[in-house]
Specification:
37% of the residues lie in helices and 16% in strands. By secondary structure, it is α/β, with parallel strands linked by helices.
């Protein structure tokens, strides 16, 4: 176990690393639901072994809790009354949970195709839910019209601060890791993880620099396509995520600097990985299955490497919740909703 400087050692959540965030959040504004410090589980597949980081065990079922714990705490410090986010599900759930804890009203724009269990979980935190086929554009319009911050990770660099805790936590708890595998849509997690690892290495705080490997699948391949040749295949992993990201070039640069590469995983490999994880009692999402599939392909070539994979989200059952939702696909739809009355601004 590596001893990093400036740790708040009594804490086992992202605020253990409060001095690494920018800006720093005073303790009285730090919101936590006990996110972070997730399990490192060793698994063996035939003659190869690996470590999976169980981000699915975060309080709201995904690594997005790290981002939103920090981001909403910053909004709380800034005395914001309302926030907006567009999301494929997990980020909206995390945002709603932390916003409720902070007493901030959240507007969540999500796809009508959002899985029912995620939508029910989102409803449990009582945000204003807008179902839209154009959720990112609707969230952008709401942000501009009502002058409230958009939490969307692909647009807001504050999203990367909380994800730094992943790199810090791995560095503190693993004496050495040769390669880290992480799924990407907006790429905020990958960029923060890689950037923080590079910083720790360059400062001499860790003696090794893990290769950073980006995993994508199906029709989402903009980052991986800039790192390796791909064969497009069908899969549900990340299917509601954004197809490209403004972070693409900076992520590719970071990945190359660590010596890593990209992996585009097809449906067949994902299905095989799912069965393996279920066998280990890990009920993670399609994205986690894709990560394990990429790890398997890597270890088949270099079995001696110590590899860690981020299991970014959970699949779970959530009771049906009856709550009002709204539909909007145009700015006029939003204006007609009279959101200013609902968010009291």
């Amino acid at each position: 176990m590596i001893i990093l400087p400036h740790l708040l050692e009594k804490k086992k959540n992202i605020w253990r690393y409060a001095d690494y965030f920018n800006p720093k959040i005073p303790e009285k504004f730090q919101i936590s639901l006990n996110e972070g410090w997730t399990a490192h589980q060793k698994i063996s597949i035939g003659d190869i072994s690996a470590v999976i980081k169980r981000e699915d065990q975060n309080p709201n079922g995904s690594h997005k809790d790290r981002n939103l714990a920090y981001h909403v705490s910053k909004a709380f410090m800034e005395a914001r009354k309302a926030l907006v986010i567009s999301s494929s599900g997990n980020a909206a759930i995390s945002a709603a949970a932390y916003a409720k804890e902070a007493g901030i009203k959240l507007v969540a724009a999500v796809s009508p195709d959002t899985p029912k269990y995620k939508l029910n979980r989102l409803k449990s935190f009582e945000p204003i839910i807008i179902l839209s086929k154009k959720a990112p554009r609707i969230a952008n319009f709401i942000s501009a019209r009502y002058k409230i911050e958009n939490l969307r990770p692909s647009l807001n660099d504050t999203a990367m601060e909380g994800y730094k805790s992943l790199a810090l936590e791995i560095s503190e708890r693993e004496e050495r890791v040769d390669a880290i595998f992480c799924y990407a849509t907006s790429g905020a997690t990958v960029q923060a993880l890689g950037g923080q690892m590079l910083e720790l290495f360059k400062k001499g705080l860790i003696s090794y620099l893990p290769e950073l490997h980006v995993v994508q699948s199906g029709k989402i391949y903009s980052i991986v396509g800039g790192l390796t040749q791909i064969n497009i295949g069908e899969t549900n992993a990340g299917y509601l995520g954004i197809k490209t990201t403004p972070r693409k070039e900076s992520i590719i640069k970071t990945v190359k600097e660590t010596g890593g590469t990209g992996w585009h995983i097809t449906g067949d490999a994902i299905e095989k990985a799912q069965k393996i994880l279920i066998g280990f009692g890990v009920n993670t999402s399609d994205e986690g299955w894709a990560v394990l599939a990429a790890m398997k392909q890597y270890l088949a070539k270099i079995p001696s490497k110590k590899v860690l994979g981020i299991m970014s989200g959970a699949v779970y059952i959530w009771e049906d919740i009856s709550a009002e939702t709204f539909s909007a696909d145009t700015p006029e739809d939003i204006i007609n909703l009279k959101l200013e009355q609902k968010i009291e601004i």
